[in-house]
Amino acid sequence: MTTTTLDELGGKIPQFLSNSCRISFNGLGNYIGLTTKSVKARVKKMQASGVIDGFIVKVNSLVLGNSKFCLLVLKINSNAADLDHIRHILTQLGDILYTGHVLGDISLSNS
User: Fold this and answer.
1) DSSP labels for the chain?
2) I need a labelling partner for 58 at 20 to 30 A (CA). Which of 33, 64, 68, 103 fits?
């Protein structure tokens, strides 16, 4: 895997998208001070290079009738082989709905 560095404006894009991935390129451009075309090009480049791995939807499982839900956050400084082993162990606890990487701090709220 190759590493990528982002300039100051580029660093704001994944940070903002991690909180609001449905924002338009125009809205994101207004927030960080770039044109729509420039934001779109940067996002596409980040997707191609793997900086942006995907976009997710947060589902409220209680609305779907699931009465029990567990959110487990692990901070792991490890290699890919160890991560596969950890995922395997966690599947013994039940279904894993989503795994992913977090950029920056994690905050939880009841909203």
Assistant:
1) -------HHHHHHHHHHTT-TT--HHHHHHHHT--HHHHHHHHHHHHHHTSS--------TTTTT--------------HHHHHHHHHHHHTTS---------S-------
2) 33
pLDDT in tens, 4-41: 788 888 889 988 888 888 899 999 999 999 999 999 99
Interatomic CA distance for residues 56 and 53, integer angstroms: 10
What predicted TM-score, i.e. pTM, was given to this entire model? 0.56
